[in-house]
């Protein structure tokens, strides 16, 4: 028997999950193992068993597999043998004796530093679940936490630390990402102007249609910092949202106005930025990071309902490039690395190829 659920007959004893055997490049042999005979956990106390439906593939998931992402405890401790995957959506199918979330409720399990969404069943404490309203689809709910809430949090941090009324211009790198596109949409909704840096022009028109005010294509403008100052009439941007690091992040940081904010939320290049002492001293810029797992617990409960409203109003419309079964994970990783990827890649966890 699994938990105290009357649905015990619907819950198998074994499941399929994607396990990290050793840290390394996802395509390398022996890094990942698709285990079709993993045990299904048994909920107890206030725990619930979630039958996972969909889970996305994020850049941070790729960094987890490589062994670089410190947001997952096992990466910090250098302990392979776990299931990656930062988020996903599923249905409660079994309960511990003290659980209060009803059977059949769709939820987003908040996995935090444990990760583990790339499997068919996840056991979590009920308080770690966000219940999903009926008017939010499974594929939207699967992407609820990492990108949309990060976008909301980033904008709230900018509004808290700089005056976006006095200077409404912000700059973001990796603007072609799912998060970058959501930032364009939310900024437009809040009357904030965006300068968006992308690698190639393949998605330029798509970003314009989303409401991007200015788009800079790196491969066409090697001195794009000058363009930023031209657009802002020599003032610079109020804030930078940065996900790459390296020379790109360094140049973005140099585009800040006096008293501007550099807000790092990713490190896709794996390389640090260089910050000018002159900018720190004479422009009094502020450089800080944003980590959703630290920001979210400090927020009031209505922040999630506010997020659902952004989906209902069409401000956020996640773009999905493809949905793949878990056993096609190598294909998913290959698609994730494509330069002109146009949307999120989702794993479908309850069907086979």
TrEMBL record:
Domain Enoyl reductase (ER) intervals: 30-347
SUPFAM superfamilies in UniProt: GroES-like, NAD(P)-binding Rossmann-fold domains
UniProtKB keywords: NADP, Oxidoreductase
InterPro entries assigned to the protein according to its UniProt record, in alphabetical order: ADH-like_C, ADH-like_N, ER, GroES-like_sf, NAD(P)-bd_dom_sf
An MF annotation (GO) of this entry: NADPH binding
PANTHER family linked: QUINONE OXIDOREDUCTASE PIG3-RELATED, ZN2+-BINDING DEHYDROGENASE
Protein name: Enoyl reductase (ER) domain-containing protein
């Amino acid at each position: 028997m699994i938990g105290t659920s009357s649905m015990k007959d619907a819950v198998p004893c074994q499941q399929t999950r994607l396990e990290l055997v050793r840290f390394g490049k996802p395509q390398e042999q022996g890094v990942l193992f698709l285990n079709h005979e993993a045990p299904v956990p048994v909920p107890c106390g206030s725990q619930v068993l979630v039958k996972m439906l969909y889970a996305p593939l994020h850049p941070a998931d790729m960094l987890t597999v490589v062994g670089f992402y410190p947001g997952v405890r096992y990466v910090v401790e250098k302990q392979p043998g776990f299931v990656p995957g930062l988020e996903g959506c599923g249905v409660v199918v079994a309960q511990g004796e003290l659980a209060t979330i009803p059977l059949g409720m769709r939820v987003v399990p908040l996995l935090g530093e444990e990760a583990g969404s790339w499997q068919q069943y996840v056991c979590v404490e009920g308080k770690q679940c966000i219940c999903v309203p009926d008017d939010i689809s499974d594929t939207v709910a699967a992407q609820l936490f990492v990108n949309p809430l990060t976008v909301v949090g980033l904008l709230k941090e900018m509004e808290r630390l700089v005056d976006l009324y006095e200077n409404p211009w912000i700059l973001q790198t990796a603007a072609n990402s799912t998060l970058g596109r959501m930032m364009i949409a939310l900024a437009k909704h809040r009357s904030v102007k965006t300068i968006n840096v992308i690698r190639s022009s393949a998605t330029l028109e798509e970003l314009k249609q989303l409401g991007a005010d200015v788009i800079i294509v790196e491969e066409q403008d090697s001195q794009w910092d000058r363009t930023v100052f031209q657009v802002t009439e020599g003032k610079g941007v109020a804030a930078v949202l940065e996900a790459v690091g390296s020379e790109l992040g360094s140049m973005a940081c140099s585009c800040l106005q006096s008293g501007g904010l550099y807000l790092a939320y990713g490190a896709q290049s794996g390389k640090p930025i260089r910050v000018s002492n002159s900018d720190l001293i004479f422009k009094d810029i502020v450089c800080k990071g944003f980590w959703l797992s630290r920001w979210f617990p400090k927020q009031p409960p209505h922040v999630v309902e506010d997020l659902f409203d952004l989906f209902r109003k069409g401000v956020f419309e996640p773009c999905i490039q493809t949905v793949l079964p878990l056993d096609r994970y190598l294909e998913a990783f290959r698609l994730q690395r494509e330069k002109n990827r146009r949307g999120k890649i989702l794993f479908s966890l309850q069907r086979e190829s």
